[in-house]
Task: inverse folding
């Protein structure tokens, strides 16, 4: 038996034991575990990966068009990241972040400070994931407003349908009703405005161009709530939830910037997905040419080889946390100033994760992965548009870089939404059976999302387009919207 065969054999037997554990012990996230009581229902157990391909315990290969969960940006099998982690774990596996730091964390902060589109020399607060990054940014905004003498600036503005994480603060700014159920009352003051969503815009989807009425809603909300009560506005550059939704107009973020400048509200860009090359630039804010006050990151920062998040803060704002309270300041303002930022997390900036992030950044810069995302994203988008130009069940193809959504519709002309959970599940099953991991987001109108590792090849893009044409055409036949003559079938 060769070493490879022996390892495959070991993986198979471990995966059988894992199936029992999933039935009895493991609690999968956002999963109804009762489904796994049926032994027929076998969870997919991935055991190895290389490049953009995953293999399950039975030896089946899958092209990972979701990059883990929008996160394995540099692809699988990066020995350089693994070696950097091993070296750091052997030298010093952990440093207490409450008052101490590690060499890789300090190096990483300096690099991120220079790379971030925040006007240079940002300060970096490390966390261990996306929800914690959002939580940190919200707390930081509120303390900053308190230090400025605005104790009533506790409200937040975010967008409906948006996803910013699952901890209570992040959940409060989420715009998904289903995710928010059972946990109320959530954080007081969390307000939500409509998305900026050209294809489904309630204000201007039938107009020749975006009228920015979605932005006007933000302004109206600020006026209604009182500008002196709003701490921050949080948005993603391209909104994931609802299916890769860029703003209706490039001016959208610039207008939010101006509003924040005029009112003292802090502008947060949640780049947990859009950061680290996804949109074709290192940061999504760069893609839209806007300078926020705070950028939240996670996922792609280590290409998910280790858990890490980072909150990047514009220097001027970080410096406020180091300034003495002005003469005559009230006691709460003085206390908020004296403390520094009153927040901390044991695993924030874990040295092994920071070593992984540094190696990941080396790869991103040396191989120009943001540039690759722009090039390959452009190619994939053109191929999709050519393949689906007249498909009755494809209403919209949108996104940026390698973050592309294909909105499925029951009727292309009327834009009637395709709301058939059974057929949507069958579509995902069909894709998976053909060896592709794809997410079809049904949190808004159903959208198939492509978010592969940034190293995906042209051939893999071609395979993806062929697979999508076949599976979506099969779906159209089941729906009865497509005859046997569609050229792509
Ligand atoms: C935009 C955005 N923010 C925050 C989060 C939360 O990140 P995590 O799951 O690492 O807590 C996510 C997760 O997908 C996200 O997409």
Result:
């Amino acid at each position: 038996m060769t070493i490879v065969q022996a390892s495959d054999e070991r993986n198979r037997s471990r995966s059988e034991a894992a199936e029992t554990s999933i039935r009895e012990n493991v609690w999968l996230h956002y999963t109804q575990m009762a489904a796994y009581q049926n032994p027929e229902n076998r969870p997919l157990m991935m055991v190895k990966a290389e490049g953009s391909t995953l293999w399950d315990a039975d030896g089946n290969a899958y092209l990972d068009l979701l990059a883990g969960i929008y996160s394995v940006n540099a692809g699988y099998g990066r020995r350089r990241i693994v070696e950097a982690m091993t070296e750091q774990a052997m030298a010093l596996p952990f440093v207490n972040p409450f008052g101490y730091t590690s060499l890789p964390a300090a190096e990483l902060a300096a690099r991120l400070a220079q790379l971030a589109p925040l006007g240079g020399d940002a300060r970096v607060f490390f966390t261990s994931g996306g929800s914690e990054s959002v939580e940190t940014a919200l707390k930081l905004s509120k303390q900053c407003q308190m230090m400025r003498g605005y104790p009533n600036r506790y409200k937040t503005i975010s967008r409906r349908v948006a996803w910013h994480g699952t901890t209570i603060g992040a959940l409060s700014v989420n715009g998904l009703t289903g995710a928010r159920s059972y946990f109320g009352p959530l954080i007081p003051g969390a307000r939500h405005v409509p998305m900026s969503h050209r294809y489904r815009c309630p204000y201007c989807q039938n107009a020749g161009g975006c009228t920015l009425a979605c932005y006007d809603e933000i302004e109206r909300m600020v006026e209604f709530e009182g500008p002196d009560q709003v701490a921050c506005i949080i948005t993603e550059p391209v909104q994931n939830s609802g299916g890769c939704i860029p703003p209706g107009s490039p001016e959208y973020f610039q207008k939010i910037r101006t509003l924040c400048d005029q009112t003292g509200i802090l502008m947060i860009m949640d780049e947990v997905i859009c950061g680290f090359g996804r949109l074709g630039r290192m940061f999504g804010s760069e893609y839209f040419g806007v300078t926020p006050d705070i950028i939240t990151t996670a996922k792609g920062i280590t290409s998910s080889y280790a858990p890490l998040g980072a909150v990047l803060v514009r220097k001027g704002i970080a410096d406020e946390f180091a300034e003495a309270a002005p003469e005559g300041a009230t006691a709460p303002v003085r206390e908020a100033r004296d403390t520094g930022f009153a927040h901390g997390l044991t695993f924030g900036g874990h040295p092994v994760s920071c070593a992984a992030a540094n190696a990941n950044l080396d790869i991103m810069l040396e191989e120009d992965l943001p540039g690759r995302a722009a090039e390959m994203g452009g190619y994939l988008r053109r191929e999709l548009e050519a393949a689906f130009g007249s498909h009755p069940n494809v209403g919209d193809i949108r996104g940026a870089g390698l973050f592309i959504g294909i909105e499925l519709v029951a009727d292309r002309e009327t834009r009637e939404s395709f709301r058939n959970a059974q057929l949507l599940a069958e579509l995902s099953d069909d894709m998976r059976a053909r060896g592709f991991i794809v997410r079809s987001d049904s949190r808004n109108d159903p959208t198939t999302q492509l978010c592969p590792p940034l190293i995906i090849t042209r051939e893999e893009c071609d395979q993806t387009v062929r697979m999508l044409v076949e599976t979506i055409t099969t779906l159209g036949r089941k729906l009865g919207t497509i005859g046997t003559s569609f050229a792509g079938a």
Summary: The mean pLDDT is 94. Residues 129-131, 134, 163-165, 236, 240, 270, 272-273, 298 surround pyridoxal-5'-phosphate (CB under 6 Å).
